[in-house]
Amino acid sequence: MDNNAYQVYEDEIQALEEEIKLLTEKYEDIQQESTFFSEEEILKSIKSFQGESKGPESPSDLKAQLESLEADLSFLMKLTGFQFTSHSKKTLEKTGDRTVQKHRLSGNCYSLSFQLEFQLLETQSKGKVSTVITDLSIIMESGEDSDVSKFVSSVEEHGNLITFFRSLSTYAEWYEHRRRTFLHFK
Predict the structure, then answer these.
(1) Can you tell me which residues the record assigns to a coiled coil (predicted)?
(2) From CA 101, how far away is CA 94, in angstroms rounded?
(3) Are residues 117 and 180 in the same domain?
(4) Residue 124 three-state SS
(5) Res. 39 pLDDT band, cuts 50 70 90
(6) Can you give the pLDDT at residue 41?
(7) pTM higher than 0.90, yes or no?
(8) What is the DSSP string of 31-93?
(9) 70 lies in a domain?
């Protein structure tokens, strides 16, 4: 065989080794997430869930509940224009009173797509829980609109997701109206 054939096999082996490495890391992350919870916490969660559901429910009740939730979700998507396409969460650190999680979220608001990545720091003191968003990064299709870029930079700096979602909803709705209007005149 010539060197080209060997190189193709070497490249394939390298790609498979990288895929194995990525899958191993993902598996370890999942294992790490599950080890953060003690048996006591898991049992407490199960008991609280069972207490809320008040016993086993029939499949027809669960189906009706699912249909109701889907209808609510559809209503909220029509009302706000948001449609989330993916979300991932990774716990980076968990101690007795402090938890750090990394979130990745992507979706669309009307015709504008966005991606968010941020860390959520949750601390507990004297029974009170406080959360802080850090390391916020927003990627948006803003085209040449410098105002959107300035707005995104400001939101990233202040870490204010509520402002981002409220403003994006309004902006995207009017952006969609403008887009349809200009298409009508073309």
Answers:
(1) 6-33
(2) 9
(3) yes
(4) strand
(5) low
(6) 67
(7) no
(8) HHHHHTS-HHHHHHHHHHHHHHHTSPPPHHHHHHHHHHHHHHHHHHHHHH-EEEEEEEEEEEE
(9) no
